[in-house]
From TrEMBL, chain A:
Domain ABC transporter: 13-250
Domain of life: Bacteria
Leader peptide range in chain numbering: none
Name this polypeptide is given: ABC transporter ATP-binding protein
Stored InterPro entries: AAA+_ATPase, ABC_transporter-like_ATP-bd, ABC_transporter-like_CS, ABC_transpr_LolD-like, MacB-like_ATP-bd, P-loop_NTPase
UniProtKB/TrEMBL annotation, chain B:
Source species, domain of life: Bacteria
Membrane-crossing residue ranges in chain numbering: 16-37, 253-273, 301-323, 343-365, 392-412, 418-437, 475-494, 700-723, 750-774, 786-807
Topological type in the membrane: Multi-pass membrane protein
UniProt protein name: FtsX-like permease family protein
Species of origin: Luedemannella helvata
Amino acid sequence: MPDNPGRTVEPAVRVEQLTRVYDTGGNQVTALAGINVGFGRGTFTAVMGPSGSGKSTLLQTAAGLDRPTSGRVVIGGTDLSGLSETRLTELRRTQIGFVFQAFNLIGALTVEENIALPLRLAGVRPDRAWLTQVVERVGLTDRLHHRPAALSGGQQQRVAIARALATRPEVIFSDEPTGALDSRTAAEVLTLLRAVVDEHGLTVVMVTHDPIAASYADRVLVLADGAIVADLPQLGAAGIAEHLASLDRRVLR
Amino acid sequence: MIGLAARLLRHRAGPAAATLLALIAGVMILVAMGTLVESGLRFRAEPRLWAAADAVIANRTVSHTYKEFGGDTTTSTVWLPEGGTVDAALVDRIRQVPGVAAVNGDTRVLIGSPAAVGHGWGTFAFAGRPIVAGAAPRADDEVLVDTRLGVAPGDRIDLVVGGVRRSYQVSGSAETGAAEVFFTDAQAARLSAHPGRVDAIGVRMAPGANLGAVREIASAFGATTYAGKDRGKVEQSENQAAQTLLVTAGSAFGGYVVLLIVSVVAGTIGLSVRHRRRDLALLRAVAATPGQVRRMLIAEAALLALVGSAIGGPAGLLAARWVHGELVGRGFVPAGFPMADGLFAVPAAVGTAVLVAVLAALVAARRVTGIKPIEALGEIAVEPRRGGRVRLVAGLLSLAAAGASGAFTLGAAGSTGALAGAVGMLYLFVTAVALLAPRINAYAARLLTKLLPRVWKVSGYLAAANLRANAQGMATVLTALVLSVGFGGSVWFLQNNLERQTTTQSSAGTLAERVLVAPGGLPLDAAREVRELAGVRAATGVRRTQVVVRALDGIEPVGAQSVDPADITSTMDLAVREGNLADLRAGTVALSATLASSSGWDVGDQAELWLGDGTSVTLDVIAIYGRGLGFGDVTLAAETVAGHTAGNTVDEILVSAGPEADTALAAWTAGRPGTEVLDAATRTRLIGTDLALGAWLNRLLIGVMVGYAALAAATTMVMAALARRRELAMLQLVGVTRRQIRRMVQAEQAGLLGTAVLIGATIAALTLSAIVNGLTGSPIPYVPPLGWVAVLGGTTLLALATTVWPVRRLLSAPPIDNIGVKE
């Protein structure tokens, strides 16, 4: 399903002239001001920027959770702009995985059921071998029949990653996946995401404000005021922090 | 989807339990009502008296065909209140028809004491029953009686007919299926209240003969031929009255209960969807299409409805059995009336419940389309502002409609009409409140922002902030509370007002100091005798009957009194507004203001109506009076109705006399066993008791509806309170003490309840006064002092039990356990 050898040149996700304007009580707030960017297959990108820079909006519109005011989003060769809500959902279900900061899981369902939920909603028979592999990879084999309430925060995030992997998506979008975790648990989760990219060739786009988290990525995009102000290769945590600090100074001036 | 729905339901048991409770109670009420209606609809009167007749000719209904606005014609038919008669000449005409083997005209004689019905001996052959003992009556003082009367051949029996007691020799007895007495044909004709006319004609045909000719002749005489199973419709009027009562009461209230269930179930399902917003958003984000989420909600609702039916259905059957027992015990329904087993009522109730739940889920699911998957990402589920102008406009329209219906209700005649109008108006008001609730809450919260901190300090400040923030979420709670206060406050008290007004009018309008009554009535000429007694200034014989008039939608019977006009102005004061009651004589009529305004008749107009036996008459309107509830909407002269009633008696004689007449009255009654002299106060008390008995069913049904509304309010509030787990934990963690939280909840409840009671009471007051004004001309309703206590106390208790208790439970758990939980 995700493997499409004929299109390897095409990035997994591409956005063109993406703008998103919110209308809050007569006030027009521009969250994204015409962004062009591609996320190559098998890459791990960190999207950073100060609060209100539009990084979360970029993630949501690129993932088809929110619709852009104008511009295009292309995922795996499919243009999202013309799709109905139902078609969009079906696309999300097969091509996109999500890991949010918190409240990722349905409390009524067990770990196993949560992981298989997208497949169940799609009416697809789960690929047992793949699911077993995924569960092993995230280290939850002995927790399958627990409910999310019985798991720690780090474990919950690992369940969310397993769920995202279950459909072998084109891309995994992740919004502050370690925002609610301590540094050790965060490192585990980030290592897992890194491994997903390295071992399975998946594409990960992660929004974060933490330079250490960003240091796990191959590439760091920095946004400010709805535009990309820097597109950097991996600089290491210190380099990223320095870069962000200089950006803040610029904003302050 | 159903599996997933069931899993999610089990996990979120709170809101599901509220919906389930509403559905269980709803199904239970519907099954009980449905069983009553079904019993009424499926009742087929078995012919008893005419069991051996092939056909029975009678005049039992009156029909009126009129044009509707659209140009279609509609025929409205009602059963004749006094049971119509047929010209005796028809008997001989039928006898000459070829193929007729036997024919008999039945002279029905009402026996006042012991309660029985008399017939001529000729009818006995048509009952097809053997004589158990003795022989047929041969002399005029001989009777054959049913074994139910407990006398044997050779005994003597006293029968009161037309208010006159006579002693008869029992010649024989038979088992006829009811308390029947058979006189000789000649004696029956002599006792008849309508000489020259018979109650019904039984026909037996020769084998193979056709009824066609008989039908034709009968219809030329204005009578209907009942053959086969229909023969039973001619007799057993007690069962027919029960049938009508069951169908009308059950369906009218059942309809309102359906509306109530719709609003309650829609409310709880809507609330449960709102409380799960984040779960649903997550499902959407993870990969559920809007259609899948919608289907899941619908499956969930259908599942709840089925479980609710499984519990509510059997409970409803038990409730129906209990109601039946009570109805029989209070004399509304004869003991032998067959009750249906719910073969149709149960599926209908279950179908309704499933339909209501699924429709409510559909409406709630429309909201799902508005749930954006990105909401799953948010830290706090913030309620989006919903419903803009459309909701406001719809709310204002309902409000206007409620006002207009209030004006319209003024024209409704009779207590049933008033009650129906009241409930309709109430629904419009409640709908308006439901639509405007978020705005009302927001406005009330702004007003309370200044007030609450003064009383409750910091807790009050927090409470006001919560009320402002949750204006939308509390809309359902407000609606449910207003519904129960409005219902309890108006429909229940309307019944009080009706009863009070009736007795007040009756006692204020009765000038007579003494009243003569007797079981089975008094003779027609008794009033004349009493008038001549020493010390008696005036005496008026009164018979209560009904006449049929044209109403808004067809024709309907209304209460009437036939009076001896001679002394009427000295014995009763009907509060005449126009015309003069002294002009009352044969061919004239006086009307209540209510009836006059609804039918558009004025003094000097010609009123066309039907007497109780279906005779069409045109009467000159000579007066319009105010005391219609106490005395009936129509007042006729005794001469006008003479011969058109089932019996020839008066129900009571109003006597205007000083204490000096007591001796003479006592002497007069002494000669007539069973006759009693009552003073006016005793009579008023007896009328009150009768009314309360008659209103029992209304009270029961209203009580059920108010109870259901209260249940809805209770479940909604418990749901709303339990949904605050996270919020309360958060408050505790930032340093608000439990005591302060409890006080905050109290302050919120005080604010919310105050608003609800205020609005509910206003609605109740408006509804009540519109209807009371229509009935009595005075817009100030009467509310019993205990009523105020019950409404206010009940609401307060409800709020305390349904909010303070759940919150206390939430607070008993360490806050840190609750903070991680969603919402």
